[in-house]
């Protein structure tokens, strides 16, 4: 399937860690960078094979009406380590693909779900010669086999940094999009090739689509509705060694397998100055709030919890100078990159439910803040309504802040009508 749930026949995911940076209310986040742990073995996917299709040595079991060509071309050198075994076939269907390295060791991999190519389970080794064999079979059982050999390129100079905001074996809220980060951003002309290499498998199946921010620094994957409780997300961002434009190559593959937990949502209404909290469709708490004052309004939109800090310090003196402040904050939950949080604000309890006095954050009482902090997961939706400012796309994990029809427009690949 092109442009949406690009999974493989077999996928094995690995650990990827992504701690978040911090900014206070009113602060701007300077990049959204993340640190990463080494992943384990990935069995996953790649996209389009190297150009220059060529017919390698062919063996047939009979006079079979099968046309079969394989890529990379025979003897091709300097092949990206992201390459997969591509093929074109007519008169039959590919039934067997094998790949071995120079020592004859078999390389694990799997066919794409649409059967268009075979993807190595992990990035290939640099400066290594590989041999591939592809067999196609007719309905009557006759076969044709084509082979090729190719050599991968050496170490690359310029790389595109990547990040996956998903932890292996963690549980997230129903609004958690799959978030991938690129530094520098991917230009429009190069996004389709990169998107083909980003795979998501959901159990139970919930088809989704990738959508890019305008800068190309982030791509989000979501389904039409929030994830179902109990969903498993299995993700591989198979861009290690992939040409990403401008002479750069993806720094490495990243993968994670995570779970979706209970359906927990927070809805804040400026008109009532209240937050209504639901779990699995039932109201479980109502909390009074104070939002951003007129000069520093809170943003309206659909956000998700991105980070949780039991105790931190908001410091805006670097950006606001003498007008800034430095304050210890408890039970802070980030919802935008630009510095808006849900947090404890004992100094504004008297205003909560009546007047907006914050610098843009959602102020709640200490008891409500602690209760929320103990209940929430990263990825729980937070909807704010009726304020004087609108959430900007990309200011946080904003995949749910646009309609589905608008979201799919951000895909770099064609989206079937069935998913629009």
TrEMBL record:
The active site is at residues 343, 361. PROSITE patterns: LD_TPASE (PS52029), PROKAR_LIPOPROTEIN (PS51257). Keywords: Acyltransferase, Cell shape, Cell wall biogenesis/degradation, Peptidoglycan synthesis, Signal, Transferase. Residues 33-61 are annotated as: Disordered. It comes from Paractinoplanes durhamensis. Residues 264-385 form the L,D-TPase catalytic domain. This is L,D-TPase catalytic domain-containing protein. PANTHER family: L,D-TRANSPEPTIDASE, L,D-TRANSPEPTIDASE YCIB-RELATED. It comes from the Bacteria. Residues 1-23 form the signal peptide. InterPro entries: Big_10, LD-transpeptidase, LD_TPept_cat_dom, Transpep_catalytic_dom.
């Amino acid at each position: 399937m092109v442009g949406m749930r690009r999974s493989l026949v077999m996928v094995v995911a690995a650990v990827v860690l992504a701690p978040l940076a911090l900014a206070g209310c009113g602060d701007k986040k300077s990049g959204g960078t993340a640190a990463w742990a080494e992943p384990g073995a990935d069995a996953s996917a790649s996209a389009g094979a190297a150009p220059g299709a060529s017919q390698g040595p062919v063996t047939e079991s009979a006079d079979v009406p099968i046309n079969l060509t394989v890529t990379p071309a025979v003897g091709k050198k300097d092949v990206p380590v992201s390459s997969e075994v591509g093929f074109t076939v007519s008169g039959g269907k590919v039934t067997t693909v094998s790949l071995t390295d120079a020592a004859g060791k078999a390389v694990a991999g799997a066919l794409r779900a649409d059967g268009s190519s075979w993807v190595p389970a992990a990035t290939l080794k640099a400066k290594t010669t590989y041999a591939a064999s592809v067999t196609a079979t007719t309905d009557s059982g006759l076969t044709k086999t084509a082979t090729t050999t190719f050599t991968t390129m050496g170490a690359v100079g310029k790389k595109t940094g990547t990040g996956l905001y998903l932890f292996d074996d963690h549980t997230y809220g129903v609004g958690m999009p799959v978030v991938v980060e690129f530094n520098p951003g991917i230009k429009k002309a190069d996004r389709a090739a990169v998107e083909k290499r980003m795979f998501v498998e959901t159990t139970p199946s919930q088809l989704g689509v990738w959508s890019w921010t305008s800068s190309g620094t982030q791509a989000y994957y979501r389904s039409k509705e929030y994830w179902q409780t109990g969903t498993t997300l299995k993700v591989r961002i198979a861009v290690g060694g992939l040409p990403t434009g401008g002479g750069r190559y993806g720094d490495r593959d990243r993968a994670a397998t995570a779970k979706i937990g209970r359906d927990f949502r927070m809805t804040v209404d400026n008109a009532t100055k209240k937050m209504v909290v639901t779990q699995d469709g039932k109201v479980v708490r109502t909390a009074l709030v104070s939002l951003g004052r007129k000069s520093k309004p809170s943003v309206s939109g659909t956000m998700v919890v991105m980070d949780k800090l039991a105790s931190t310090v908001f410091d805006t003196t670097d950006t606001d100078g003498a007008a800034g402040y430095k304050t210890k904050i408890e039970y802070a939950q980030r919802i935008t990159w630009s510095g808006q949080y849900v947090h404890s604000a004992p100094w504004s309890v008297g205003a909560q439910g009546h007047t907006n006095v914050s610098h843009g954050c959602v102020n709640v009482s200490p008891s409500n803040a602690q209760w929320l902090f103990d209940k929430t997961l990263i990825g729980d939706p937070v909807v704010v309504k009726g304020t004087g400012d609108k959430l900007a796309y990309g200011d946080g994990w904003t995949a749910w802040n646009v309609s589905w029809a608008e979201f799919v427009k951000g895909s770099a690949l064609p989206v079937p009508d069935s998913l629009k």
